[in-house]
Amino acid sequence: MPEPYLERATIRVPATSANLGPGFDCIGVALDLWNEATVTPGEASFDIKGFGADSLPLDGSNVIASSAARAFRELSVDPIPLAFECVNNIPLARGLGSSSAATLTGIAAAFAFAGFDVAERENQDRIFEIAADIEGHPDNVAPAVYGGCQIGIHVENGHPEKDWIVSRVGSTEDLKAVVFIPDFTMATEEARGILPVEVPRSDAVFNVGRAAMLVHALETRRWDLLKHATDDRLHQPQRIEKLFPRFRPIARGALEAGARGVFLSGAGPSVLALATDRFMTICYEMSENARKAQVEGEAIILDIAQKGIQISD
After folding, report:
1. Residue at 116 is within a domain
2. Alpha-carbon distance 33 to 51, whole Å?
3. CA angle 66-72-73, nearest 5°?
4. What gap in Å lies between CA 161 and CA 269, rounded to an integer?
């Protein structure tokens, strides 16, 4: 049986980069950039600092609140009114998993105050499943829950429900992410809406090969393979062409400066370069090429977060 619920909890959730090159809707990685929420029972409320402080809803329509309500229902627990003091360090609508971070914050809060230990793998698996059902795909939520690089898929077991399977990929300790974050936003719904319903067989084969090579490169630390292993034809060409054509000079600057591979982070518009050295040089060249292309924004260097969601009282 669950322990009595807490009087206070602090929940930290990392940023994530989904779609990882050719891993559309199935491969993602956690980044060392965190949203933090201090949660207490009492009157339901929100106090938001950082990204979204002047734009996110402060009522039950907030993703954190709706996700918590969903989790309470899944747990068959009467909802507990919760007050959230949020510090948002993950930019909104930039392809860095701000939505999944909010979703997981709400779910984890419900679990914690219903008396479940979020650090236990069994409960983490339940949190992941609820979040993946909400998001519709696992590539953001899996690394945010478990850390590192994760593959997630769903399988049909002869029932209406979908069962999710997730597995950690290789070792990412030697890699850093150099991320150029444009000042403009890109809504995931818009970015998904421009994608074709069907793709040519040649494009499907292209992505299968690159996704296999990406997993192999991460498992064996063959960083030299990442340049081609992060190529994609399922979503990046369409999004770059129609929504962010100035991606190309930023990506070129990263590769010429020594990045191992470069791609759109999530649905964009952030540009993520994987690197094993020359981090400051890559950061500078991405920023300089963005300036020349008249794209406002900033480049930052992030470690790969080896652990996912964290909670303390």
Report:
1. yes
2. 13
3. 90
4. 33
